[in-house]
Amino acid sequence: MSITKALSRPKISIINRILIVDVLAIILTILFEVYKGTLSGMDPLAITFSYSVIASFVAFILLARNVEHTYVNSSYRLIPASDTKLYSAGMLSALVGMVYLGLSPIGLALVTSALDFPEISRQVRRIFSETYQNSDKSSFGMNIFVIITGSILLTIALALFFWATISLIHLIGNSLTNFLPDARQKFFRFILYVVVIVGFLYFSTYTIELVNGFLHHFHDLVNYSSNVYFEVYFASVYILALAIVESAISIYLLKNWVETDN
After folding, report:
1. 259 vs 246, which has greater pLDDT?
2. Which residues contact residue 231 at a Cβ distance below 8 angstroms, ignoring those fewer than 6 apart?
3. Using CA atoms, how far apart are residues 163 and 65, in angstroms rounded to an integer?
4. pTM for the whole structure
5. Predicted confidence (pLDDT) per residue in 13-54, tens digit
6. Three-class secondary structure assignment of 8-30
7. Do residues 58 and 101 make contact, with C-beta atoms less than 8 angstroms apart?
8. Which burial class, exposed, middle or buried, applies to 36 when counting CB atoms under 10 A from its CB (0-12, 13-18, 19+)?
9. What is the CA radius of gyration of the chain?
10. What confidence tens digit (pLDDT) does each residue in 106-139 have?
11. Cβ-count burial of 130 within 10 angstroms (0-12 exposed, 13-18 middle, 19+ buried)?
12. H or E segment and range at residue 68
């Protein structure tokens, strides 16, 4: 837990900087809309969540970079802990950072909703009412539960999977190019990355089709479809299983082949 806490600090710092830019962008955009006289209805929420999507993408990339740096940095590798524990702490701390970022839009949405709370409240009630009226009312509560839990689980699974994949590609490249002369390392590392990335894309085709199938049938959740229920959870479990396999390979490389960069 202490290692996870230590690794979480730089990631939380990254998220805090992203949030500062995110908040500034939201404020400036809303002020600009007010200046033009076009701000109304759900606009504050739309602006907030639009920038949150961009912030999440940037955070994902920066956290992935931070995780990679951890595994090949002498300061972290000298921590008296096993490679398995270091790898797990790195992934868990990245997930903590993303959860922290994921909760921030809720607070920001509550603040921006105050700009036109009566209208936003009316719109939300209307959407909820229309969804309820067009659904199977007897299973409406269960459907909402599946939508929320399934979406959260799938998001976590995808984040861990892509972080594990990025780390694996980096560690494979680091391991193999250590045997090459310094003058040729960059060229062969580039070729290796291309080969590994193509292999990953080919291997992940089924995963992408599985997720696309879930998204295509996502609206069926409201009207109840047991097949879709199984699909969202199966997709999450399948992706998590792939992440575990990739993580096991990465840990093996860390123990036996990966050298630090500094």
Report:
1. 246
2. 210, 213, 214, 217
3. 9
4. 0.78
5. 999 999 999 999 999 998 888 888 877 777 888 888 888 888
6. HHHHHHHHHHHHHHHHHHHHHHH
7. no
8. exposed
9. 22
10. 888 888 877 767 777 777 777 677 666 666 666 6
11. exposed
12. helix 43-71
b/e for 75-110, b at 16 or more Cβ within 10 A?
A: ebbeeeeebeebbbbbbbbbbbbbebbbebbeebee
Please give the Cα distance from 185 to 145 (Å, whole number): 51
Number of residues in the chain: 262
For every residue of 145-205, DSSP letters joined together read HHHHHHHHHHHHHHHHHHHHHHHHHHHHHHHHHTTS-HHHHHHHHHHHHHHHHHHHHHHTH
Q: What is the DSSP letter of 222?
A: T
User: Tokens at residue 217, please?
Assistant: 């049938």
Residue 2 burial by Cβ neighbours in a 10 Å radius (0-12, 13-18, 19+): exposed
Q: How far apart are CA 110 and CA 94, in angstroms?
A: 26
Asked whether the beta carbons of 220 and 143 are under 8 A apart, the reply is no
8 Å CB contact between 154 and 213: no
Residue 177: which of 200, 195, 159 has the closest Cα? 195
